[in-house]
Amino acid sequence: MNAVFPGSFDPITNGHMDVLTRASRIFEHVTVTVMHNARKQGRHLFTLEERLDILREATAHLPNVSVDSFSGLLVDYMRQSNKGIIVRGLRAVSDYEYELQIAHLNRQLGGVETVFIMAATRWSYVSSSMLREIASYQGDVTSMAPAATVSALRRKFAAEITNAASVDNPGSPR
């Protein structure tokens, strides 16, 4: 059976990778799908293409995992791509209530089932927003994210620091 692991993955964390790796052992094939939400346009740190590139690099070692993107309802993607199961990771009880509502909606709208995989305890505190925050202050996130994410965060924030310095001091060399 084929499964889809949807999310914004802005960026992917070791918690995501833990859930994905375990799902890849359960399902014949898992497609990591970056769901593009037009209402969140401009609120992501990484562009859609950047997130897809990071995911491709981070998942290259998993032979039965592919990367895709979709704009619209997840149930429509599931129907169009002939996928059977949605995989969602849970970090804490607080995640469960929200994810349960979404799972019920997806079943009601598209007859699609959701399988929850608990993230390993050591990743329960890690989120994409926390990674972005720590990295924005040049904090070390190497233990919380795959190498592809760490490199991308370093490039992104180095570029922002360089651009900010140029704006603050327009006469300085770049």
TrEMBL record:
Protein localization: Cytoplasm
Alphabetical GO biological process terms: coenzyme A biosynthetic process
Recorded family membership: Belongs to the bacterial CoaD family.
UniProt GO cellular component terms: cytoplasm
Name of this protein: Phosphopantetheine adenylyltransferase
Annotated Cytidyltransferase-like domain residues: 4-133
Assigned keywords, A-Z: ATP-binding, Coenzyme A biosynthesis, Cytoplasm, Magnesium, Nucleotide-binding, Nucleotidyltransferase, Transferase
Segments forming a coiled coil: none
Subunit description: Homohexamer.
Pathway linked to the protein: Cofactor biosynthesis; coenzyme A biosynthesis; CoA from (R)-pantothenate: step 4/5
Organism of derivation: Deinococcus maricopensis (strain DSM 21211 / LMG 22137 / NRRL B-23946 / LB-34)
